[in-house]
Write a structure and sequence with these properties.
The protein has 142 residues and is α+β, with helices and mostly antiparallel strands. It has two helices and eight strands. It has a single domain, classed as Roll (Thiol Ester Dehydrase, Chain A), CATH 3.10.129. Helices cover 22% and strands 37% of the residues. A hairpin with a 3-residue loop joins β3 and β4. The longest helix has 20 residues. The model has no long low-confidence stretch (mean pLDDT 95).
Length: 142
């Protein structure tokens, strides 16, 4: 596996998210909580508006977090390149996400000159009880 080195820390990536999405409510935004070489962790706070009928967190909410985690991972490793964009997102829903804060861990599988490929795992109950898994590809500027 390639050795990936982040160029931004947690506060740097969170600051870029605030810059990229200036109209978003910071209290409702997912936040990067940890960065390691090739990995990022995010936390998205729970609120009742995320629930769908049946009392589980909605699929679009999980997809948003998967995309956000991949974006955070890419930015952490390439820096202030806000025009990196999603080119592919494939999501598998593994079980209903029970109400609670959402956690995501994203892993960089490949970082090339034009594309970054990420694996994202999402849970509420614990990392051993995944609610969803996504493969996300980002097209890089340049």
């Amino acid at each position: 596996m390639a050795a990936f080195q982040p160029v931004l820390d947690v506060e740097g990536v969170n600051a870029l998210f605030r810059k990229a999405f200036p109209g978003a409510d910071p209290a409702q935004m997912a936040q990067v909580t940890a960065i390691q070489p090739g990995r990022v962790r995010m936390l998205s706070p729970f609120r009742d508006g995320l629930l769908r009928p049946g009392g589980v967190i909605s699929g679009p909410t999980l997809m948003t977090l998967a995309d956000s985690a991949a974006y955070a991972l890419v930015l952490a490793h390439i820096g202030d390149q806000l025009m990196a964009v999603t080119s592919q997102l494939n999501m598998s829903f593994l079980r209903g996400a029970r109400p609670g804060d959402l956690h995501a861990e994203a892993e960089l599988l490949r970082l090339g000159r034009r594309l970054a490929v990420c694996d994202v795992r999402i849970w509420t109950e614990g990392p051993d009880r995944l609610a969803a898994q996504a493969n996300v590809t980002y097209a890089l500027p340049g």
